[in-house]
Design a protein that fits this description.
The protein is an alpha+beta fold and about 300 residues long. The chain has two domains: about 170 residues, Regulatory protein AraC (Jelly Rolls, Sandwich), CATH 2.60.120.280; about 120 residues, Arc Repressor Mutant, subunit A. The protein is built from twelve helices and ten strands. Helix 2 crosses helix 4 and helix 3 packs antiparallel against helix 4. The longest helix is centred in the middle third of the chain and has 21 residues. It comes from Nannocystis punicea.
């Protein structure tokens, strides 16, 4: 018998179970984390590093990108469309009804693959997409998020099912009317070269890579290459290099490697630079990140294999 679809009450219960302390709580699944706040917070500076989904299950929040401002709540989700700096204000939160939310950072590879599959062809040039958009949180996405949070608790499901559920969520987000401008930015013709370049970066991330040599391999000028790469992957080429290096570092740390050793293995010449980038990406320094996840009730699947 098919399992019944889950609703907002189920998602609230699942997020509350994970967000049981103030501030940010990371999950064993890369890119998935939770936030809890017991009082309003004004103008907290934040940074989006890749396309991300932000969902509030209790409370309300405003985000400001300068020219663009959005407010969202448990009935609407926010999609951050790529790299961006912004300020966020938690409007509705109290000790009795804390602000609770979750965020799913989407790997650029999944973004690129999905946008290419959904790309609107035969369209003229489009403006750069807004840094974010708000859309209605519908039942299929709620159900998928519940399934994702349930899968994260089991090592085997986290390794096998969670990535598939994330791809389903991204497909639903990028197929929506609100994401039309993202689809139009991916023009037919150069997507294969960008995907090939992304594969090259994954295979050679520990080497010295520059926009110039990556563009040369893709037979594009550096400016055109950087522009098309961002349109397809929603991050810059060098941000993607950093993404690959840091996620490889995460895997090595969870397998027991020391932070100082990991820096050189993934392509960083400076351990301090690596630590700074890792903290910016994952919220805490590498050693602390590994300690927290190793202390979790079940050992992350990434300690055995890459998710």
């Amino acid at each position: 018998m098919d399992q019944p679809k889950r609703g907002h009450a189920d998602l609230l219960a699942l997020v509350a179970r994970h967000a049981n302390v103030k501030g940010r709580t990371d999950s064993p699944y890369p890119g998935l984390w939770f936030w809890r706040c017991d009082e309003p917070v004004t103008k907290r500076k934040s940074q989006a590093l890749t396309l991300s989904l932000a969902v509030i299950v209790q409370g309300r929040k405003a985000v400001n990108f300068g020219e663009h401002a959005f407010t969202y709540d448990p009935f609407n989700y926010l999609v951050l469309t790529g790299e961006a700096d912004y300020e966020s204000t938690i409007i509705d939160a109290s000790a009795e009804r804390p602000y609770l939310s979750m965020s799913v950072g989407v790997p650029p590879d999944v973004v690129a693959r999905t946008l290419i599959a959904l790309a609107d062809s035969d369209l003229g040039g489009v403006d750069e997409p807004a840094p974010a958009y708000v859309s209605r949180l519908d039942a299929p996405i709620v159900d998928a998020l519940c399934r994702l949070l349930e899968a994260v608790g089991d090592p085997a499901e986290r390794a096998v099912l969670a990535p598939l559920i994330v791809e389903e969520i991204v497909f639903r987000l990028l197929r929506s009317d609100a994401a039309a401008v993202l689809r139009r930015a991916v023009r037919r013709g150069d997507e294969a070269r960008i995907q090939e370049s992304m594969a090259f970066i994954r295979a050679h991330a520990a080497e010295r890579l520059t926009v110039e040599n990556l563009a040369r391999r893709a037979a594009m000028s550096p400016s055109h290459y950087a522009h098309r790469f961002r349109a397809v992957a929603r991050v810059s080429p060098m941000r993607y290099v950093k993404h690959v290096r840091l996620h490889e570092a995460r895997t090595l740390l969870l397998r027991g490697a020391r932070a100082g050793e990991v820096a050189g293995q993934v392509g960083y010449a400076s351990a301090s630079h690596f630590t700074r980038d890792f903290k910016s990406y994952f919220g805490v320094p590498p050693a602390e990140y590994a300690r927290r996840l190793h202390a979790a009730p079940d050992r992350p699947a990434e300690a055995q294999q890459t998710a």
